[in-house]
Amino acid sequence: MFLLTFVYSFRTISLCRRSRTLIPKSSYYFGPPPPGSAFGSHPTGQIGLHHPREIIRVERDYTGGELIQFAPIYPLELEGRITPTQFLESMNSINELLISAHSVRRAMIDNLVSVFSLQLSTVLLSSHYEKEMKRLQQLFDELNMEVYNPSGLNLLWPQKVAFLFLEIEYYVSASVLSL
Question: Which residues contact 55 (CB under 8 A, 6 or more apart)?
Fold first, then answer.
């Protein structure tokens, strides 16, 4: 009985080591992808219907200090999906809106208006930050529809992770979607 239990537990442990998780999680980049990764393999799945094969993480750029920006460094995993120019243009437009949203001058004006109106302006008007976040959400939707989704990629909204990093889901290529 003991031997049977030992063999069964060894079998389940060895099976767990070989298999990948069904729902991928993004992680820090420490070199080339592991041998079991989906990069370079034939893509499967559909955006919005299946789980992504992999998730690529674009880190925050801390060279500007406290200012929230994403690093415009082209991940090699995106090679063959979108061009470095498309990636750089999308990161620059995202960073522009983030810089505008965190403008000190506009935050000071919003705070002064709310103080002098006894906080009634917060009920009637939306702040500059809220307006820019709506514009950023629209930009994400636009980038997904025009650039990323046709290439089998999907940008995730970074507010869920407090803008610490940007995640790109790695799905199917456009040729597989049309079949």
Answer: 24, 25, 26, 167, 168, 169, 170
Q: Domain residues of the chain, as ranges?
A: 45-177
Burial class for 123, CB neighbours closer than 10 Å (0-12, 13-18, 19+): exposed
Please state whether the predicted TM-score (pTM) of the whole model is above 0.85: no
Note whether 39 and 33 are within 8 A (CB): yes
Neighbours of 22 (CB within 10 A): 6
Question: Which candidate, 11, 39, 32, places its Cα nearest to that of 169?
Answer: 39
Q: How far apart are CA 57 and CA 158, in angstroms?
A: 11
Contact 153, 80 (CB under 8 A): no
**Predicted confidence (pLDDT) per residue in 22-72, tens digit:** 676 666 666 666 666 666 554 556 676 677 778 899 999 999 888 899 999
